[in-house]
Amino acid sequence: QIVEVLPWLDPVMRYGGAAFLIWYGAKSFMSALRGSSALEVSDSLSTSFAKTMAMCLALTWLNPHVYLDTVVLLGTVSTRFPEHRFEFAAGAVTGSFLFFFSLGYGAIWLRPLFSRPLSWRILEAVIGCVMWLIAFKLLSRV
After folding, report:
1. To which H or E segment does residue 102 belong?
2. In degrees rounded to 5, what are phi and psi of residue 45?
């Protein structure tokens, strides 16, 4: 554990993380109160297939979360199950496929819902509640 080597890092991460989450939650609550925008999607395709594929590749391979989540997080967790590495890999690939497949089709199904400003305001309020709940848990060490 890095906290055992650097004990001062624990309060810095805990209070710094809580401060960020409180700020982020407040920002979401402000958007929920003041927001008036809605999802506006054009039915016409304005970009080429090549531009779309280039954007997908850039969002995938230039995104630091790809490396943090896949290499660092999953790599670290997978070391706890060395005798089940193939099952772990299959589960990770299946979970990733299901998540992104659901995200794509879920966006299509939720499109009519998020074309209304009230839906975005409710979503922002829920995000604010989640951020503040996580901050509270960080501060109370629950």
Report:
1. helix 85-110
2. -85, 120
Token pair of 139 as six digits: 């501060």
CA-CA-CA-CA torsion sign (9, 11, 14, 16)? negative
Q: Smallest Cα–Cα separation from 126: which of 29, 6, 11, 22?
A: 29
**Residues 50, 40, 110, CA angle at the centre, nearest 5°?**
90
Q: Is the pLDDT of residue 18 over 90?
A: yes
pLDDT in tens, 33-60: 998 877 777 766 667 889 889 988 888 8
Distance CA 135, CA 112 (A): 32
State CA 126 to chain mean position distance: 14
Token match 């999802």: residue? 39
